[in-house]
Write a structure and sequence with these properties.
The structure holds 2 protein chains of 2 kinds. By secondary structure, chain A is α+β, with helices and mostly antiparallel strands. Chain A has 9 helices and 4 strands, in the order H-H-E-H-E-E-H-E-H-H-H-H-H. In chain B, the strands form 5 sheets. In chain B, strands 7-8-2-17 form a 4-stranded antiparallel beta sheet. In chain B, strands 4-5-3-6 form a 4-stranded antiparallel beta sheet, with helices on one face. Chain B has a 4-stranded antiparallel beta sheet with strand order 10-9-14-15. Chain B starts with 7 loop residues before the first helix and ends with a helix. The chains are: A alpha+beta, B alpha+beta. Chains A and B meet through helix 4, strand 4, helix 5, helix 7 and helix 8 of A and strand 17, helix 11, helix 13, helix 14 and helix 15 of B.
Amino acid sequence: MEVFEVSNIDFDRYSNRQLAGVPLLALGIALAIILTWFVLYGTPVFLGIEFTGGTELTLRTQDSPSAIQRTFENEITSIRQIRTQENVYLVTFQSANSDVLASQARSAGYEIEAIETTSPIFGESAQQQALFGLVAAFIGMSIIVFLLFRTFVPSIAVVLSAFSDIVIPIAVMDLLGIELSIGTVAALLMLIGYSVDSDILLNNHVLRRSGSFYESVYRAMRTGVTMTVTSISAMTVMTIVSYLFGIELLTSIGFILVIGLATDLMNTYMLNLSLLRWYKFEGVKR
Amino acid sequence: MSTIRERWRVVLLTILIIASGVAIFAPGIGQSAGLTNLQYGLDLAGGARLRAPVVGITAEGVNVTGQNELDIEQNISSQLNVDITDVQARPAQNTVEVFADNVTQQGLRNALQQMGLNPSTVRDGVTAETRQTIVNVLQHKVNALGLSGGSVSIAQAAAGTHFIIIEVPNRDIAEVKEVVDERGVVKIVASFPAPGNKTGTIRKTVLTQGDFASIQPPTTQQGVPVVPVTLTQSAAKDFAAAMLKYGFTTGRGIENCQYQSAPNSSYCILTVLNGEVVYAAGMGGNLAQDIRTGNFNQTGKFVIQTRNMSEARQLQINLQAGALPASLDLENGTANYISSSRAENFKVTTFITALVAVFAVSGVVFLRYGRREVALPMIVTALSEVIILLGFAAAIRLPLTLSHIAGFIAVIGTGVDDLIIIADEVLTEEVSSSHVFKNRFRKALWIIGAAAATTIIAMAPLTQLSLGDLRGFAIITILGVLIGVIITRPAYGDILRELMTDK
């Protein structure tokens, strides 16, 4: 017995324009947000200390956040408490001089659990590398997709969906003030790999299998939605648990994947699907 | 149909799981003290890591020969007003390096042009040889701390800049910086029989640290591993005079060093590090000739012969007294520290997190299929990929970090996705024969292969970049996807066929 079943949506009720409109509007809004951020802050997304340079101390102390603020002579960018550990704080500084910060912390009687320092020059190099990595991954993925399908519209549909799957989470990061870290870059790369799975599945069923368009779509959806929902639930759980434990890397990866995979559901079954339907019923005839 | 040939994937999977189990749990394979043979990296073991570029600029395409080498070094050092030990000309590479942070690229170019030399390029950074020397010296020092697991390596950034990475378990940042900066005291001592009819040996210090203009990396001369060194001009004169005076250039003195067996009749040149004799060598015939003719006073060059390359490398490090040929720019790198207790805590909590994620996957899969014979093998197969990866990590003694754990989670994610594709493909209608099954299975594999190709290509750039910890993540993900696509995921298909078509 199956407890949850992927229900069939009556796609026939909506025109291609209606179906594609929603994800394209979402993509447009996301791009507008990122552009606004670029104009306002000079960067499309807030950068963490791994990219800007700076220091993060993990401290154990009885002091309140405001007392911690007074302890350090250097300017503090943020203070965050780890939920499940009493009296443990993540304190970030613009300064990359960890020796000075560590000695200030020690003389105040704080126990140092961890130090992470990046110099501005190193951060800049990391920025370039992250950007290069994302662009190269995306281009590589696009080439593979075009090689797999060898037709323009279905291929570009996958690439456009994947593009939107990355752009929308970045806009969400802007709105929620989440910084780009090594972990979120990893998550964005994972999205490039993950999100095209359901698109490839859909294209494969529609283009390479016998049966009517809608039959193929429903069959692809049954599998694809299961895949994505499974991943989303695993990542949701991972995000919550790692947040409670204070494992930043896993929290940021999990959160970005949840947003990205949810976006992917919309993009695959609205954007990719409408482009595919247009190609199948109108594009091919031309 | 149930022959081994038909089920080779399942057999292979079983063998791999057992082998991984052995690699992870069998005592004596790894050196770790814990329950398993798994090695843990910085954020799961505790310790400190420094990452820093090397100070220096390099002129390439300079016509350096054995003859003008010393000349270039002396000339450039006086023109640029830097210490002679901070200038290194390399005939084999045709490069001139300056290890000082107050010299500009244009400054070095001008200085070389003054000498009539025209470098093809002048760039920031140092040569690969210099970096390797730095890594050797640092590795030696880290090993001297008596801690296993300390490592020194080179990483390349996008723009061709290189970083030296030093990782030491159970130490903090200040302690690792101390290790980088610390130097030993090195002396070259002549040991020879007492003259006349007195007995015993006499020891005279003939060279100290400041007397060396440069100590080159080891090379081979006529098949013998040697360390070439160059003395400053005044030191060369004094050294030659001492060698003549103590009888090292006479028939009795040449190549007559049995420091261990017959110290009383030996003529040895000893390398003494922190008061301890670390190396003994005899006077060579050619060098004695050079000293007698006075040639040596001009060049100040000689080579110290060793028995093998690793001895040569060790001698070079000793001669440098643990000094780096070029200093590390610690201000412009990164520094990480994590306490052992916090790392220990991470180890437990990441394990719990990963486990909970697996439960979530299992829960959804059970809800979706509602059939144990479909869902259970699915979860077991996905987990087996992680076990094989862990076994691989234990076997090659890869130090696991948080980013590897993230990679494991990514592998479970893509793995379950693929298994769902296989299950759905196979279960759409009643499977009547194994032929029908094979046909559908092949169709499923096309999608899985396509999805795997995109994942691998998306991760590939990361394996080449030194983007913090992401390399480990990318390598594990790629490896996991490969193991999955080639072995485990098809094996799941075989298991499913067994369970479906037998009914």
